[in-house]
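Entry
Fold in token form

___
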Amino acid sequence: MKVLKMIQYNAPVVLTFALVSLAATIAGMLSGGAATKLLFCVYRCPITDPLAWVRIFTHVLGHANLTHYVSNMMLFLLLGPIIEEKYGSLPLLGMIAVTGLVTGGMNLLLFPHSALLGASGVVFMLIVLSSMVRLEEGKIPLTMLLVVFIYLGQELYNGIAVQDSVSQLTHILGGVCGCGFGWAASRLQADAE
């Protein structure tokens, strides 16, 4: 019992996201994919479907299987607490929601015959945003440039060279969101000083 008292729920948004995402993934697996299709996957459907508006945000919680979940959550759990500590829980939740809206919306517009699920766009947002944590006005961090070059450059290449361009677009859009959030946060901080 003493050990449990020592464990701290240190990043509430990150930990809750990871747990809800795990529950969504397991529900999808147990239902043969029905729960995932119903709630945790964005795809073209009539705009009168009320769940279409829910799925545009909740698709970031669904994963095809545990391997997909683990590959996203490893980086999410590594980078998320840094971002949540730096910017706060509510702003991080907003960043996740906006990234989900952007990636889900662009998937609907550009890939009407493809479904999208998973937190990879959010993970790429965190990757880029974490490289901008110490952004100073008038300066561009070399770490951010390297992240953009390595990760987003690879995704651009894969988007052109590999037939599966949907996931690459999600990664790129997540990175663009992270860059935008980092730039906006640095501007707000500069204006406050």
The domain at 2-192 is CATH 1.20.1540.10 (Rhomboid-like fold). Residues 165-192 form the longest helix (28 residues).
